[in-house]
Amino acid sequence: MKLTFWGATRQVTGSMFLLETDDHYRILIDCGADMDKKTGSNGLAEESPSGATGFFPFEPSMINVVLLTHAHIDHSGNIPNLYREGYEGQILCTEPTYSLTNLLLQDAASLNHRRLNELGKSKKQKVRKKLVALQKDLFLEKQVRESMDNVVPIQFNRKFRLADDIDVTFIPAGHLLGAAHIVIGVYENGQRKTICFSGDIGRQHYPLLTDPEPVPQVDYLICESTYGNRLHLDSQTPEAMLADVIKRTCIDIPGRLIIPSFSVGRTQALLYTLNRLYTEQGFSAIKVFSDSPLALESTKVYQKNLRLLNREAKEYYEENESLFDFANFEYLESSKASREVSNYREPCIIISSSGMVQGGRVEQHVAANISNPYCTILIIGYCAEGTLGWRLLNGQPTISIKDKEEPVLAKVERTDVFSGHGDRDDLVRFVKHQSSEKLKKVFLVHGEYTSMVAFQQTLQEEGFAQVVIPEKGQQFDL
C-alpha cells in the first residue's frame, strides 16, 4: 500500500492524499483548494499546479473513490475540477458534509461565474489571455451539480465496504457539522492494515458541536497540526467573551459591533451564543444583523441536523424551540438591505462574511465604519497574510479599502474562543488515544511548517518516535 501527499504539506490548505493498495485500488482522501497559492476572490487557485494531467499531479480517471472529511473549501474546493478532468466515481461523506459542501461549492461557482463575466468585458489582450487560462481552472455551477450527483452519504460509526478487502468508517471529529475522522482498513498479504486521516480536529465544548471522538487503534495516523505549537489564548467561555465586548461596544456607549465571520460553522456558533445571552442572561435585545445569504442556507442545514448536535444544544432547543432565532434578529438577504444597514443609527451587531475581511459583504461594512471611533471590529478567526483582516490586526494606522485610504479609528479586537480547531493539548489528546508502541508512524499535515516541527517534538517527547513531516509529492510504502 502506498500513500502520496499531494496537499496540506508544510502548509495549512489544499488537503489531498492518495492511497493506493497493492492491487491498484486508488482512494483520494479530500480534494481541497490550495489557498496558499495566488488566489482569486473565492480562494481558489488562479494558476494550475504543475502535474501529469494539468490541474492535478495524477490522472483523475484512475481514482476509484473520493472520501471527504468535511465541507470546508480547503478540503473540498477542487472536487468539481476532479470531475472535469475525468474522474467518474463516487464521493463518500456524511449527510451534513454533503449539504454544506454543495452550498460552499455553489457559492464558489457563482463567484467564478461573476469573475469570468467581468474579465470577458475587457478588450485588453492581456486580460483576454488570463480569461482563457481561468476558464480551464475555474469551475461553474454545472460542474458542481455533476459532482454532487455522485455523493453517497455515509452514517457515522458504521463500517462501509469499499471493495472486497477495503472498508471505511467515518468517526465524528467536531470542528464542523458533519466533520469526520476517516479510518480505512485494508487486507493485504494476509494481514489487516489500518490508517486514519484526522481531517480537522475540533475542540472540547464547542458551541453546538459534539466533542471529537477518539479513534480506535490504527497502524498509521495522518494528523492535522494547525495549532501544533500553541494553545488557545482566550480562556473565557464564548458567552462571557461576547457579553464583555457587547457591553463595552453597544451598551456602555451607543456603538456598533462588526464581526467578520465565516458563513459555515462560525456564524451558527455566534448566533446560538447570542441567543443564549439574550434568553438566559437578560441581555437587552440589541439589533443583530446576519449579512450573508450563504450563512442563512447553512443555518438551515444545522437546523435539519439537530440530532447530530451536542446535548446542550438539543436541550436548549427543546426549551426554547429555536437555536438561531431571537428578538431583534434579522437576516439581510438582498444587497440593497445590506447597504441600508449603514443608515441604521441605533447600537447594533453586524455578522457578515468573509471571516478574513477579504471579499464578501463585510468589506462594505468595514469600509463604512473603519473611521468610526464608536465601532469595534471583532476578528474571531484566522486571517491569512495580506488580507484586510490581517492588516487590521497588525495595527496599521490607515487602510486602503474600496480604493480609498481611510484612517483606522475603529477599535480592532480579536479572540480565538470561536476557533473550530483544537489546540496543541487537544491534538496531543487525540494522538495519545493511540498506543505509541502499536502506532507505526504519524504523518503531520495541515499546518505551518513551524507548527509541525514543534508538534513533532512534542509528540516525540510523549513517546511517539516515528513522526514524519512529508513534503508535497512524497510517497511512502505502508
Automatic annotation (TrEMBL):
tRNA processing found in the keyword field: no
CDD domains: TTHA0252-CPSF-like_MBL-fold
Domain of life according to the entry: Bacteria
InterPro entries: Beta_Casp, MBL, Metallo-B-lactamas, RibonucZ/Hydroxyglut_hydro, RMMBL
Keyword vocabulary terms for this entry: Hydrolase
Transmembrane segments: none
Residue span, Metallo-beta-lactamase domain: 13-262
Pfam families: Beta-Casp, Lactamase_B, RMMBL
Domain Beta-Casp positions: 267-392
KW Hydrolase (keyword) present: yes
Name of this chain's protein: MBL fold metallo-hydrolase RNA specificity domain-containing protein
Organism the protein comes from: Larkinella bovis
